[in-house]
Amino acid sequence: MAVKIILREVVEHLGEPGEIMSVANGYARNYLLPKGFALEATAGNLKMLVRRREVWAAKVAAETSEAERLAQKMNAVALSIEKKAGQGGTLYGSVTKPEIVELLAAKGFEVDRKQIGPDRPIKATGVFPITVKIHHRVTATIQLTVTPDADSDVAVVEAVVEEPAPSLIEQIEAKEAATAEGSD
């Protein structure tokens, strides 16, 4: 059985303040109404809705405007983190959302880990776009650069590659020379 409600707050995947929605009875009674996200669509509440719509619209517009300003600041931010990596740039572990939250906090932005995307963990070195959902209508994109730290196997492999390995002919000549010295 469906119940008609009036939303008081933004509810993800449902609607915005002032919208009249039909939802399942249990969803309304157990979640939306007790949390204060909605009101029952009674005759009195519908009359009140006409007066409150302008207030809610102004509130949403102000929140959106503030979120857009914050998004502009965040879009200019570039983050970097060093992680232990193996050959081919594969990380031992991954870059986690709490680590990204800490990096943003160091830059002066307070966000919750639930606001951060992507949903898949970052498990390689490189540059990755990170989305931050500031408001239900506004999203910022930050560039995260993941580099191998000094203790990584990548650094060791690069150091070994810098020294040229002896050629096969040089190896054979070295063995012949060692054998010749041993037989003298």
Helices and strands, with pairings:
Blueprint: E1 2-7, E2 20-24, H1 25-35, E3 38-40, H2 43-75, E4 78-83, E5 90-95, H3 97-106, E6 122-124, E7 126-135, E8 138-148, H4 153-162, H5 168-183
Parallel strand pairs: 4-8
Antiparallel strand pairs: 1-2, 1-3, 5-6, 7-8
Task: Note down, in words, how this protein is organized.
There is one protein chain. The protein is built from five helices and eight strands; from the N terminus they run ββαβαββαβββαα. With 184 residues, the protein is an alpha+beta fold. It has two domains: 66 residues, Ribosomal protein L9, N-terminal domain (Ribosomal Protein L9, domain 1); 97 residues, Ribosomal Protein L9, domain 2 (Roll), CATH 3.10.430. It has a three-stranded antiparallel beta sheet, with helices on both faces. β7 and β8 form a beta hairpin. The N and C termini lie far apart (101 Å).
Q: What value does the average pLDDT take?
A: 83
Say what the CATH topology of the largest domain is. Answer: Ribosomal Protein L9, domain 2
- Using only CA atoms, what is the Rg? 30 Å
Give the overall form. Answer: elongated
What are the secondary-structure elements, in order, as H or E?
EEHEHEEHEEEHH
Strand content: 25-35%
Instruction: Compute the separation of the termini in Å.
Output: 101 Å
Summed up, the helix count is: 5
Biggest sheet: strand arrangement? 2-1-3
CATH H-tier superfamily of the largest domain: Ribosomal protein L9, C-terminal domain
Largest sheet: 3 strands, antiparallel
Q: What is the name of the CATH architecture of the largest domain?
A: Roll
How many strands in all?
A: 8
